[in-house]
Amino acid sequence: MPNFNDLNLDNWKESEIWTDSLWIIQERDKTGKHSNFYHGNFVPQIPHQLISRYTKKNEVVFDPFVGSGTTAYEAETLGRHFIGVDIQKDLVEQLKSKVDNEKYFSEIISGDSSKSATFDEINEVLKKRKRENVSLAILHPPYADIVKFSDLKDDLSNAKSLKEFLSGFALVLKNTISILENGRYLAIVIGDKYTAGQWIPLGFYCMNEAQKLGLTLKSIIIKNMEGNRAKQNKEGIWRYRALSSDYYIFKHEYILIFKK
Ligand SMILES: C[S@@+](CC[C@H](N)C(=O)[O-])C[C@H]1O[C@@H](n2cnc3c(N)ncnc32)[C@H](O)[C@@H]1O
Question: What is the pTM of this model?
């Protein structure tokens, strides 16, 4: 039996946990606090599956790109403590007022996750909460410059080149690994991009950064991207463009699972 979750395998046939490497999610979960106001958020089913599969109740989940708080709300619903960081102060303030801090703590910090000063603050929080580390990290970074999240210079969506994006992302990974319990899991959710007539495999580049830092790759999950807002109601135009050219239309992103 795995010692990193609370799944009861006596009735494994009824388990709601997905074990295939292909995740087709038809509709986003809109229950509870999930409001879908944030362009660039992920579907709640992603953190729901990861938290249920890789943590036990009362453990701490960490998200260094917390955005609108999808991971925070899922942690709360599933009875896990939570620490999240985002570079956008307003977003952090908004999220702080929405999370519940009663039975399970939810600490939302405003800062740059590539900086060690931010992790000094996180270590203080862990100390205050009498914890040594976090048990699962979920990283959903900007897909380079596909969606610009802010005008802030250190926002990874403003990196001036692929190289700069990857070195910033590697620093976030390194910092995150430093607070992750040994033997536990880290997930990266990322899609690829197209620039100047070339497919840029951001997913594989990010996977490579994680492997360079010593993480073990456990799974590459492919998830459909049907609901992408930028392309909604424009299926025909995209298909025409693809047919009149030589490329395929993005319909998937990656959920990369690593073990420390
Ligand atoms: C893809 S979004 C995450 C969305 C989130 N999963 C959700 O469901 O709302 C990426 C987030 O990373 C934040 N971000 C970008 N660069 C950052 C950095 N250096 N440190 C911390 N947060 C950063 C952006 O402000 C944005 O909210």
Answer: 0.97
